[in-house]
Amino acid sequence: MYIIVGLGNPGDKYAQTRHNMGFRAIDKLADDLNVDITKAKFKSLIGECRIGTQKVLLVKPQTYMNLSGDALREVANFYKVRSENIIIIYDDIDIPLGAIRIRKFGGPGTHNGMRSIVSQLGTTEFPRIRTGVGSGDGSLVDHVIGKVSKDENAILDETAAKAAKAARDIIEVGIDKAMNLNNTTKKKD
Predict the structure, then answer these.
(1) Which of 69, 108, 112, 114 has its CB 3.0 to 4.6 Å from that of 120, i.e. a possible disulfide?
(2) Closest of 52, 70, 94 to residue 5, by C-alpha
């Protein structure tokens, strides 16, 4: 079994922000797989599906970003899923807008949601898909939870679709091949 977790903040206020890239990717995956993510359980909204031969749980923690690990710990403990079968999708300011990067494991960096997950799971040994949102020019907080232009919103939707495909690839063809297929760099103009 796999758990795919998209990080974000609940509520309309945050819906179209850069910080909700994990939620966007989960929503895209749910649309592609015809899955409802409406069941409230484990401090999250969840939906069950299959990808290939694997049972998969799609998860959107409703704890707000900084406490994402609390929700994920409950899900992982209940289903007894190994950390290498937990895929986290989240926004990353250190990756150019529109690019994605799959990593097999690693530290949380400066991302508070990832810090919470690492703390609650007690490991960094889980795959993650980092979606590029760029770093912006001003305040970091304003950048990640501020409004985005219509043009950038379209790029973020494309990036979420790439992340959703990458998550499926990790399960269907393995993480090494998924990294080769999906890790992108955004060329500078």
Answers:
(1) 69
(2) 70
- 165 closest CA partner among 5, 29, 4: 29
What pLDDT does residue 189 have? Answer: 38
Q: Give the pLDDT score at 186.
A: 54
**Is the Cβ–Cβ distance between 57 and 48 less than 8 Å?**
yes
Q: Hey, what are 145's tokens?
A: 């939870």
Please report the pLDDT score of residue 188 as a whole number.
Answer: 45
Average model confidence (pLDDT) across the chain: 91
In this predicted structure, what is the pLDDT of residue 10? 94
Q: Which two tokens stand for residue 126?
A: 């889980």
Indicate which residue of 18, 19, 143, 165 is catalytic: 19
Q: Which helix (H) or strand (E) holds 91?
A: strand 86-92
Q: Which residues of 20-57 are buried (b: 16+ CB within 10 A; e: fewer)?
A: bbbbbbbbbbbeeeebebeeeebbbbbbebebeeeebb
19 is catalytic: yes
